[in-house]
Amino acid sequence: MVHSFLFEWKKRWKNKRLVLIFLSAILSSVGLYILHYTVASSVEQANLTKIETDIIQYGNYLQELQLQHEDAIKFSDEEVQDSIHDSIELFEQNLKGTKAELTNKQNGNWQSIYENEITMLTNVLTNGDELGFMIAELELSRFSYRTTLNELVWMEEHNLEPFIQQTRHFRLLPNVYENFEGTAEHQWKNLTTRYSKNGLSYLYLISQSFLLPMLLAFGCVLFGQVFSRKHKNEGFDLSATLPITTMKLYTGKLVAGVTGVVLFTLSMILAPLIFSLLLADLGSLHYPVLMYELNDLGHGIFDPKRDPYHFISLRDYFEQYLTLAAALTLFLFSLYSLFAIMIRHIGLRIIVFLAIILTAHLASFGPYNPFSYFDLYQIVNGQLALDSYDGRFQVSTGVGVLLLSSILFFALSFVGFKWRAKPGYS
């Protein structure tokens, strides 16, 4: 089996087109990080510019008030003097606080910023139903305040740098409890979209998309060709002439293909992580990740004031995410290996492979359907379980279902491989 693996591995990497695609994909991954880094820097600078603008405006207001106060003194208008004096004190206090905010953010003194924001959010939550933040004249749910407050407490305890958002205060935590529409939805999305310069935080942000499943599917197409034939009338592969059993030959191809997919995916992940060391730093694995929990009220019934939730560290999140991703890798490769054996034409094979994945994922809805576990982020953080009110949607169930499905497809592909290897097959 080892000889078969080495034979297939070397043969795949002799393909110049494969090497070119592999390197191009890595460069694209780095380019995507650089683009994200640029946007993050732009948003961060825009936030600082807003603070600097407020400082200038407060200074101008104070100058005008000082002149008005002098005029009031000339005319001996004590009532106006007192009113202007109160306004001056207010603007001086605002100016002092804004300058302190700018200094803290420029110097990365997040502890002081967290203390102020935690105090403000705590006051908001203790004011009964009178909440203080509006999105297009619509109130936020208490769930947003509760989760944001607990996230801030976690960040303060671990002395973490916050994500970058298009806001100066209250970096609200995005969640599924806010179901806005129209203008409010657009404002909420802009307000809660997060950016980060750090490598680990960047990986967490992109893990919320379908990027990794897409990479896995692409990797299966690249390295699943170990089971395909090069020519239409080719009766057997060169590797089939080796003095080994069909099982060892199949296993060697299988291990070579899966190893290629894993190497490809890890390279796409590690490339921006390593490159982040040149522009920023890796970040921390202690960042909090929101995990949804089911309440006792039933499907579709939410209580933002009392619904349970908890946070886990980014380290624990990645462990669960990558475990599920590994199972998904085997499932996708087992599915593609079956198509590679059954369908000769590579273009048709890829179309069928992607069409079945997309159709089955959109149509599927059940904890024991392997196609339900493509949205890794929603499985890990419990969002799919919350939306469906089905606690069976979890990482352990997904891993089991994907592995059992992989075994089934690998068995079918081996039967097809063995049948194809018979003399006279074309």
UniProtKB/TrEMBL annotation:
The chain crosses the membrane at residues 18-39, 202-223, 254-280, 321-343, 350-368, 393-417. It comes from Alkalicoccobacillus porphyridii. This is ABC transporter permease. Keywords: Membrane, Transmembrane, Transmembrane helix. It comes from the Bacteria.
